[in-house]
Amino acid sequence: MNAYHLKLYVTGQTPRSRGAIRNLKRLLDDVIPDSCELDIIDVLENPQLAEDDKILATPTLIKALPLPQRRIIGDLSDLDKVMLGLEIASYETIGSGGRP
Amino acid sequence: MSAYEHGNGIAKLPTGIPGFDLITLGGLPKGRTTLVAGTAGSAKTVMAAQFLAEGIRNADENGVFVTFEESPDDIRNNMIGLGWDIRRWESEGCWAFVDASLHPEHDEIVSGDFDFGALVARIEHAIGKVSARRVVMDSLGAVFTQYQDRSIVRRELFRLSSALKKIGVTAFLTSERTNENGKIARYGVEEFVADNVILLRNMLEAEKRRRTIEILKFRGTVHQKGEYPFTIIPRQGVVVIPLSAMELKQKSSTLRITSGQEELDQMCGGGFFRDSIVLVSGATGTGKTLMATKFLHAGAARDERTLFFGFEESREQLFRNAGGWGIDFESIEKKGLLQVVCDYPEIMGLEDHLLRIKQHLDEFNPNRVVVDSLSALERVSTMKGFREFIVGLTSFIKHKEIAGLFTSTTPNLMGGTSITEAHISTITDSIILLRYVELFGEMRRGLTVLKMRGSAHEKTIREFMIDSAGMHIGKPFQDVSGILSGHPSCATGGEVERLSSLFVEGGDI
Questions:
Q1: Which of B45, B280, B415, B446 is most enclosed, with most CB atoms within 10 A?
Q2: pLDDT, tens digit, for every residue of B476-499?
Q3: B413 falls within a domain
Q4: Phi, psi at residue B59, to the nearest 5°?
């Protein structure tokens, strides 16, 4: 498995930000136990990074590596969509011809 | 800044866009958001960029441009033709872009609820970086195409606009309309930035494009109502023509100037007023251009400068014809007393003609202006546009307190009036009619002063002749009636007697 590099942009300590962090961490613990680098960036503290990455919406999760880059916006509550974006087969579809 | 001059305490920010601050009575409501809605190609982006450009150039106010549609590079390149060097302003720290345009390669997936926290943070960051007083967002409709969930976009744009208000910047937001007379804006954008709404239109009228701007509402403050034409000039940008916002406050002079014809001066009670507008109307070949030529020659003889706009004849033709009457335009021009501007009316719209005329007036600063002829200009416009043009032109000339002579060609050889005259006769101060008079198988010419505001004038119809020395005004036509209606008839001696005796008797009763 390739090494993952994820960036999660959030706005301060809003419930939406906290929800996204919680959802993502749970998912990472469950399905990507090995090497994964995660940067959590608060746009209020680092607006220039958001500018460089052209982020509009928060939370935004960027899969920087492995390529191709992917963006998932929202509080990551829809796990299937997140796994689709990260190109991880979901629990249910592993081995049953789901998305690789 | 003349902030509290108008309205009820809502300050206005002069934008610096020519004419715009006149129709808005001072500019955009300061510290508030204004929605500018228009169809595709209605110049929203140009006006938005100009709002920032004028701020930097004239008011030392920096700006942030948030683009949802075009890339910053496209905007930088597109605006160079208008004379705005955005790249330089960026390097000088006067202008900052926030690129919120769609990047297809980002390929976003939506999972759950989101907000525009990052966008707000970026805009605030950019505002802080250049100490911006002005913010542009172009265009809100494009945000809706980036995200499927419209209710989220609407909620977030509302939040964004209140964030801008809190920062205290004056914001110029654009949005598209699907047609010129329908809803204010797509996606109901106006509902959440509804304080102030301006509409830009780009209407097709009688095969001519006509751009107009209308202030639909300014909450809590006043503005001019109705549509105003505007145009886009290379190296200058949007210029609004604030026709009816112009004030009728010019002074009126009792000084007379000569028309170049002694007899005509007498008929007018001693010449034209120095700051009056004279309309010379007649069929083709009646001597209108000759009258204009005499008018400017008389000016030059008194060291007065004349600006001549020719829309029917070329410069060479004008000079040759003047030479035929013994007037040397070339030497007058060399002395700096004459500037001749000849153009085909068709080369541009009337709004552009008007602005060019104004520019020439400002540069040459003449004592006399000739426009030959207005009817040629009428061809390139709609009726409404033409009337606005005349009002605007008259107003410019009146403000300069100089004399104007306009010619107008009537479509019929005999008698009649043209539509042109119907539109301008109330605006001009004096009207001189030149008419063909068919008498006993001969075409003769008649001249009368129909109107002379503020002065007594002769009421007769005088015969005049044109030869190599110019125009000779002779005696009144005796016993001829129906000249102006185009059906001249010669009354016999007996009838004249009978008619005059009728009036004598009438006086006795």
A1: B280
A2: 887 777 777 777 777 666 666 666
A3: yes
A4: -120, 5
Nearest-angstrom CA–CA distance, B386 and B376: 11
Residue B421 — very low, low, confident or very high, per pLDDT cuts 50/70/90? low
H-only helix segments in B230-310: 262-267, 288-301
pTM (whole model) above 0.90:
no
A29 vs A19: CA distance, rounded Å? 15
Name the pLDDT band for A98 (thresholds 50, 70, 90). Answer: very low
Stretch B39-55: mean pLDDT: 91
Question: Which structural domain range is residue A51 located in?
Answer: 4-94
- Nearest by Cα to B199 from B178, B182, B215: B215
Chain A interface with B: residues with Cβ < 8 Å: 9-12, 14, 16, 19-20, 23, 43-44, 47-48, 50-51, 54-60, 68-79, 81-82, 84-85
Rounded to 5°, the CA angle B134-B138-B139 comes to: 140
**Is B119 an 8 Å CB contact of chain A?**
yes
- Asked if B98 has any chain A CB less than 8 Å from its own CB, the reply is yes
**Does B229 share its domain with B83?**
yes
Cross-chain Cβ contact A81/B118 below 8 Å:
no
ipTM of the complex: 0.86
**Residue B350 and residue B385 in contact, taking contact as beta carbons nearer than 8 Å:** yes
Residue A50 falls inside a structural domain: yes
B386 shares a domain with B279: yes
